[in-house]
Amino acid sequence: MPRVVAACSSCRAFTGDVTEFDVEGDTVRRVIAALDSLYPGFGEHIERRMAIAIDGEIHQDALFEPVGSESEIYLIPKIGGG
Questions:
Q1: What is the pTM of this model?
Q2: Which domains does the chain have, with CATH numbers?
Q3: Which of 10, 48, 58, 65 minimizes the number of CB atoms within 10 Å of its CB?
Q4: Beta bridge mates, 4
Q5: Could you tell me how many helices (H) and strands (E) the chain has, helices first?
Q6: Which residue, among 38, 43, 46, has the nearest Cα to 7 in the 3D structure?
Q7: pLDDT truncated to tens, each residue of the chain (82 aa)?
Q8: What is d(CA 71, CA 69) in angstroms, rounded to the nearest whole number?
């Protein structure tokens, strides 16, 4: 199962201070859906506010990226800019 690490304090409002998760999914989108089913509203928060790194590489459009059973997915705050 992919391991997800929420490296942002804003995620804790949804997860009750849980920061690491092992969830089913073969794409980032499916992993986010699994997290959202555990913590309602968390999926939308991730899609709007988080950047996603898979196995150490940050992806711009990560939703359809494949993940393996040993993958590590980090949720990090998006950097705003103007």
A1: 0.90
A2: 3-77 (3.10.20.30)
A3: 48
A4: 21, 73
A5: 3, 5
A6: 46
A7: 999 999 888 999 999 989 999 999 999 999 999 999 999 999 999 999 999 999 999 998 899 999 999 999 999 998 876 5
A8: 6
